[in-house]
Amino acid sequence: MTSRPLRRAAVLVAAPVLALATLAVLPSAPSYAAAESDPAPTRAGAAWLSRHAEGGFYPGDCSWTCQVEAADAIETVGDPGGVLDDMRQAFARNVNGWTTFNLPDEFGDNWVTSGQGTATAAVLGQQIGADPAEVADVVSRLEGLLLAQGVMEGRLVDRWEAEPGTVEYDYVGVVAQAFAVTALTRAESPKATVATQWLLSQQCAGGFFSKRLSEPSAGDPSCDAGPDRAPDVPATARALLALRAATGVPGVQEALDEGGAWLASQQRADGSWGGDAATTGRAGQALGALGFPAPAARAAVWVRRHQAADPGPCVSGLAAQPGVIAPDDATLSRARAEGLETLHVSDWLQTTAGAVGVLRYAPTVGTGATVRVTDAGFRRAGARAAVGAAGLAPGTTVCAAGPGAGGALVAAGANGQALASVRLPSGTGTRRYVLRDATGVRASYAFQVLGAARLPLKVARGTVARGARQQVRVRGLVPGESVRVLLRGKRVAAGRAGRSGVFVAAFRVGGRSGKARLTAVGQFPDRTGATTMRVR
Predict the structure, then answer these.
(1) pLDDT for the residue 226
(2) Which of 297, 301, 316, 376 could form a disulfide with 310 if both were Cys (CB 3.0 to 4.6 A apart)?
């Protein structure tokens, strides 16, 4: 067997492939109880993927892994759009293009049977229920791409079609090996065990997997013996999902325990891995499958917060794209302003397909304390006020609409509460705010807002003897508004306005003789009035 070095100048020619300010209340590590998950976000993501399939193909640079992940999501919700039937037909027409690629050099074309393409094609065919004979043929080709002897036995490679003894290693990594294990295990292939054992050898001592597989020059093919073995979350997640189906092989359960523990340890406090949706989706899906419900649910909530489900009347560039998943916070904000044009469609496909799998673990109820939000009492115009809706599925997007809100999109935190902060507009009156999600109104508020005002102030007598009683009348108030009356800066009366917005009080006049200033101050300092009287 010979191995040619990769031609760095060669061009890889792949055949077509198949198809407003917010208040955050996010507990650092919410502990979700094992409960029924919410199917809505998975259905929305699968529906978006279904709408973007083109005759069984996904356009652009939607990778082999992307195709498999999209099919998995669509199959999970029962394929209501009939996309899998299109994919089955496309599989039959294009499986050869899926499993080969060209490495041209100065001497011409060099067609290579792809290890990754063949492994993912086999998994896809099994996933979508393609013709059994066609799937069996792809599995047979896959078996022929496993090295058969020595310390490299079970390793997946690319094989030159014109020179079957010549293989390439550079295009096959841990993810491809994991897909090979999945396909061979499902097919009950006699090569499944050696492929699994090779994958096990690539797990590092910390429990993680790297992107790369060991090279044939390595005397010791284990992960820890190789150079440049940086931990990789997506590769670890895919490897663990593959090993989960191969528990009959010695060492698999220990690998699952160690890998799951490492993967969970890399999760951020916000529920993500690196703030990236596809990585978070893959890691969370693996942990959910391995029996780690809490980190899987936290990951699902983070991904759901980045999934378009933007209700009206809020204006959003993603309003017409329900179910699509943005890769990160910045892209989500930009896309809501500019639409899908912020990225190429293949990027949206890659992200949504990679992230949607974890949404099957999205919780229906939140955990942890919520913030008490009320519209009781008077509010000062220009001040900020909190509005919120509780009892939501964590991660649900809510539109907070009303004067001064501008249509703010906010997402429910881990506690199932969505909070927004709105600036109350100028003037006096009732300001109403409504919070809606995709199902309808979830909360409403009516704030009694008081704007700046000059309060007319009138006394019963212009001149009053010291020690005598004086009556004062303050108008221009709102019913129930508190008011203070001060004589020469000292409070002499206080209370609340009556139903007509008038406050009347009597007080005993004290202090020195002469001219005296009488001031009224309403609920807030910018609501005032003044007059003068004489004390004799």
Answers:
(1) 65
(2) 316
CATH superfamily of 378-450: Immunoglobulins (2.60.40.10)
- Residue 228 carries which side chain, given as an amino acid letter? D
Beta strand segments in 413-489, E: 418-423, 429-437, 440-450, 453-454, 457-459, 463-464, 469-474, 482-487
Domain ranges of the chain: 1-19+63-75+84-251, 34-61+267-359, 378-450, 453-535
Look at residue 92 in the predicted model and tell me its pLDDT: 85
What are the per-10-residue average pLDDT scores of the chain (536 residues)? 33 30 43 74 95 79 84 90 89 84 71 90 94 95 91 88 72 93 97 96 93 76 74 96 93 96 97 97 97 96 97 92 96 93 87 96 94 96 95 96 86 95 95 95 97 97 95 97 97 96 96 95 98 96
CB 425 within 8 A of CB 404: yes
Query: Amino acid letter at 57?
Result: F
What 8-state DSSP symbol labels residue 361? Answer: G
Cα–Cα distances in angstroms (integers) from residue 188 to residues 181, 183, 192, in the given order: 10, 9, 7
The pLDDT of residue 62: 76
In CATH, the number for domain 453-535 is 2.60.40.10
CA 483 to chain centre: 49
Which strands make up the sheet holding 469-474, listed edge to edge? 457-459, 469-474, 503-508
3-state secondary structure (DSSP) of residue 56? coil
What is the pLDDT at residue 30? 65
Are 215 and 170 in contact by the 8 Å Cβ rule? The answer is: no
* 403 Cβ contact partners less than 8 Å away, ≥ 6 residues apart: 424, 425, 431, 432, 433
Q: Do domains 378-450 and 453-535 have the same CATH topology?
A: yes
| Other residues' Cβ atoms within 10 Å of the Cβ of residue 51 | 13
End-to-end Cα, the chain, rounded Å: 119
Cβ neighbours for 476, distance < 8 A, ≥ 6 positions apart? 453, 454, 455, 456, 501, 529
Helix (H, G, I), strand (E, B) or coil at 375: coil
Alpha helices by DSSP H, listed for 217-328, are 233-244, 252-265, 277-289, 293-305
By the 8 A CB rule, do 237 and 263 touch? Answer: yes
- What backbone torsions phi and psi does residue 459 show, to the nearest 5 degrees? -105, 155
What is this structure's pTM?
0.86
Cα gap 274→294, rounded to integer Å = 18
Q: Which residues contact 515 (CB under 8 A, 6 or more apart)?
A: 532, 533, 534, 535
